[in-house]
Fold:
Amino acid sequence: MARAPLINDITTDFQRPPVYWVKPPKRPEYNAAKYRKPTEEGYPDLKNLALDFPPDVVYSRVQALVAARGWRIAARDEAAFRIHAVAITPLMRFRDDVLVEVRPGARPGTSEVAMRSKSRLGRGDFGANAKRIRTFFADLQR
Structure:
């Protein structure tokens, strides 16, 4: 297994990364110049998720999955279909900020989900943020 890149801020969308709008971490902006290349090399599969359901339906499912994972809701913007949640790691109890945005898809009645997961501490995350996004997207597709 390849080593995880030494980064702690993972997004599925380099062009329009989800942004913090309340209670951001110390560095709320996404540093594409720093993180894009290692993210693409380390996690080439992480892209926005396209779904054949309208945004309101997908957003309801996103909310249910966030609740099922026990993530604390820091903010919710129902009109824009976005959530800022805080995930707490099981072992060390680190807090990671998770942003999920449900956007209209390319075709009517479809959606695109963008996600960002950022550790509050450290320079690297040992792949935890990428794993969080992968498992969330896998469950969202079910």
About this structure: Residues 55-69 form the longest helix (15 residues). The mean pLDDT is 93. Strands lie at 9-11, 49-51, 72-77, 82-88, 95-104, 111-119. The two ends are 26 Å apart (CA to CA).
